[in-house]
Write a structure and sequence with these properties.
heterodimer, A: globular, B: 6-stranded mixed β-sheet, globular
Chain lengths: ~120, ~110
Amino acid sequence: GAVVSQHPSRVICKSGTSVKIECRSLDFQATTMFWYRQFPKKSLMLMATSNEGSKATYEQGVEKDKFLINHASLTLSTLTVTSAHPEDSSFYICSASNAGGYFYEQYFGPGTRLTVT
Amino acid sequence: GENVEQHPSTLSVQEGDSAVIKCTYSDSASNYFPWYKQELGKRPQLIIDIRSNVGEKKDQRIAVTLNKTAKHFSLHITETQPEDSAVYFCATNRGEGNQFYFGTGTSLTVIP
């Protein structure tokens, strides 16, 4: 149980284009989803917290107009990187909290490797 | 914001030996302390966690100890095996909420 999927697993896009990443909880309802960014050999950096049906809360320094987050249902959150640039290339990972489970436990998706050329 | 320091950044041990990774944090309101294992290119996997009302928790070869007064917690892996080789991250929650701050990671190599 508590499986989280992400799509796509890898994406290469040209500078200036937008990319959408999906995060789905497959077997549970997730009232809260989190989006992280991870640089090579670095830690996970929380970008934003996404609650179903409300606006996402962004961490300091994260541009909300550049990283659009939508959490339209209890099983799906999307991250759209708008007008992507090479510096946006990174590993993006989502996680989800099970609405019916332990409040603090997060289940992670497999990540999306974004490369902007 | 929360500062979670993790040491060491790299650790090599002989198979069968023990490995210890330590994290310190600054938010006295944090009450949940998970440890994650991440293999290259894969998702972080929760391996053990501890809540603030407990000082120690053990699960087979893995244990976590927590000192809330000193604001540090440690991961202990005994009888290490090559498959334990990975990057390990500690984390704490922000205040009493469920947003995490992650440590900087420890790359563990178990030498056969």
